[in-house]
Amino acid sequence: MIDRIALVGMMGSGKTEVGRALAPPLGLPFHDLDGRIETAEGMSIASIFEERGETAFRDLEKVHLAAVCRKERGVLATGGGTILDRENRERLRAWGTVIYLRARPETLAARLRGDEPLAR
Questions:
Q1: Are the C-beta atoms of 15 and 31 separated by less than 8 Å?
Q2: Model confidence pTM above 0.70
Q3: Is residue 95 within 8 Å of residue 4, measured between CB atoms?
């Protein structure tokens, strides 16, 4: 049985929603990487980007990803940019099954309407 699943994909591809739906029938805990960072830092991802910059956010992301990957089981929804880092990609591959969620550009645009894109 697959007991470690990492969901990757662009912002708005549905990683969190799919993860929340997938975990219970598999009897697995759900881990939301962005949610974990927001809780730990007491601010939104957008605020972290704005106040501290992308480099600081990516450092936090790497630390929290490592912590989640030390857990034995679960469904993990990553952030949209998590896989941009080689070390993160390697960690995810070593941890479990990685599933890429793809959505059409018009679907992403509709889902993200009103959201501010994160700076790069």
A1: no
A2: yes
A3: yes
Please name which of 1, 5, 16, 2 lies closest in space to residue 80, comparing C-alpha atoms: 16
Per run of 10 residues, the mean pLDDT along the chain (length 120 residues) is 93 93 96 96 95 96 96 93 96 97 86 62
Residue length, the chain?
Answer: 120
CA gap 74, 5 in Å, rounded: 6
Answer for the pair 96, 73: CB distance below 8 angstroms, yes or no: no
Task: Check: CB of residue 33 under 8 Å from CB of residue 60.
Answer: no
Task: Report the relative pairing of strands 4-9 and 74-77 from DSSP bridges.
Answer: parallel
The beta strands (E) that lie in the chain are given as 4-9, 30-32, 74-77, 97-101
Tokens of 110: 């509709």
